[in-house]
Amino acid sequence: MNDDLELELYDDGPADDASVSARPWKILVVDDNPDVHAATEYALKGVVIFGRPLETVCAHSASEAIAKVGEHDDIAVSMIDVVMEADDAGLSLVKALRDMGFSDMRVVLRTGYPGYAPELSVVTDYEIDGYHTKDELSRTRLISLLTTSIRAYDGIRAMSRSREGLELIVKSARQLFRRSNLEMFAEGVLIQIAALIGVEPNGLVCARDRKTGAMRVVAGIGRFSSLGLKPLPDVGDEMKALFANAQESEDPVFAENYLGLYVDNGDDGHLFAALETDRPVGHPELDLLRLFSSNIAVGFRNLTLIEALDRLAFRDAFLDLPNLNSFEHALGAALDGSRVGYIVKVYVCDYQNMVASFGSPVANKVMQEAYARLSHLCQGKCTIALIAEGAFGIVDPECQLSTRSLSRVLDQVYLIDGIELAPRPTSVMIPMDDLPEDRSRAISVATAALIHIRSVEDGAHVVYGKAERRAWERRNMLQDALKASVETGRGFSLMLQPKVELESGRMYGAEALLRWTLDEEAISPAEFIPIAERTGMTRALTAFVLRQVADWSQLYANADGTPLPIAVNLSMADLNVPGFAMWLCRRVDALGLDRHMLEFEVTEAIAMHGRIAIRQVELLFRRGFRISLDDFGTGYSSFGHLNALPISTVKVDRSFVRDLTGETAGRSLCSVIIAMAEKLGVECIAEGIETEEQRQALLKTGCGRGQGFLFGRPMSMDRFSQRFGLIARSGGG
């Protein structure tokens, strides 16, 4: 390098603070001569070009240069020695740099050999901006060359940034339009603006709260990520001032180290984005920001419309609570994920009955209060949705809930408009991994679980696991099979259990007991009778029993030719249906049965079943049928009810007989029941007698009749006839 007088003309003093703080232009110097590096650094010391200082990046070989550009991707100019480790090392390096994609970088070749020049095609193909000998590059010429090269680099970079910016805008528009909630959209806006102007993403986005009208932070990124949902004034005065300026301007605004952008979508939607910047933003970038802001406005408007549709699709219009669609969406995500946690179904109340009793405002407030209690319990970790009238569905992926906590919050009294309500909620928790993968089937399983629990344990809060689900599946299987058996009459049989006089042991009657066999399995009446009651099949079962009794009565009778009295159980489900008693009378007459030989057994729950059931029992009594009150003492009835009902017989439940002894007989509840029945003129029969001691104890209490295993288990009708010596009627088979 020639140290002529021109060198001294550029012996600059210290650079000002503004230029020192600006980002430097990076100059790559590639030369195998250390003196060249030292001279170049000395010549460029303190030089400022276009308001920015220079920074030299030194490499002593082509391979080292490749490594350096890997560390510095923003090199403006490369000054490369042609001859280094090889005669064409410099040219090979230029080719490598261009092949690596450094097309914006300006390249100046230097050589220490006058007269050596690359071919013209090489200069053109590799975009070489100049070729100089080292001796001819005085400081003035060096700085002039760098100024020209940097100007070219800056212009090319501006065009590249514009092209990249436009590509980014197109790409970001697609990404923004895919974002379906405000928080994601706002975060996307910050990321795209930061990429557009080339700064680190540190900023926030505020949106106007539709209810309060105040601007509130909806998303923060970088060091602003912890702001949560703070109101804009709480962020700081600097941000308030930036917002005020942005609101008054159609263009991006700047204050201190912030860029502010205000977007109004024209539909009462307002968005304010603020981003930290570490440098001034040039005109090309401002133009890109203006263009991008129009995309933000369109995306924001689309998002507003999507949120409006979401409110219609995912929220209940009357209670303004998440609805079934919201529940199904959350359930689908949970089933597609780790399948950890629970699906919870909560039945709060009989909504329609509550509306009829107290009005829809009260019923709605009960549901809203229940939702508030559940929300407080879930602490934002669950999705709670109104999935049916009076019922919520909850997706609990973090096992936030328990049966105890649900019972604690739901079973408290609801005080609504001065009215105390206790609706008796029921809930089931189904482990996620017990559910089918299909969303609709999973909901069906959860619904079935709630129905099952409400039918057997209303008001309970239970975990419904595999065992409970198997029980429900068995119930459904039995229900289908029972329906088929009722239609065909197959699988049923009638057993008779003797009733005896306790003193003599003489059999004087029998109770008809229905049995059902399915695929050689004897199904317990305790299992299939409740199914029949819930599905309306008990009338058909009663008809079967009456037909069997009629057929048998035509074949067998007592020794004196009189028909044997038979007791037939009636279901409360039938007695609560108006007209059942008349149907029963017609059925008995059609079968030719003697009304005086039939006794109908009803449970003491009839005392709590209102006037329909009681009136039908009264009708049967008036038509000549004996009425027996079964399982007395286990439920709700009292002697007051006993006196009011047309009862012929009281059957003392086996629970009062089980522990009865000769010593305890006189002071037992059993003796009290028998004494009161005698005063009311009602006959008493003790059930469940299994030992001789129990028989003797009952005789001491004054009970004269009973039934139980001591006298005979339920047996087939033919065997019963043979054992107790019934005679075949003349003309019988």
From TrEMBL:
GO biological process: phosphorelay signal transduction system
Modified residues (4-aspartylphosphate): 81
Keywords for the protein's UniProt record, in alphabetical order: Phosphoprotein
Entries under Pfam families matching the protein: DUF3369, EAL
SUPFAM superfamilies: CheY-like, EAL domain-like
Name used for this protein in its record: EAL domain-containing protein (Putative c-di-GMP-specific phosphodiesterase class I)/CheY-like chemotaxis protein
Molecular function, one GO term: cyclic-guanylate-specific phosphodiesterase activity
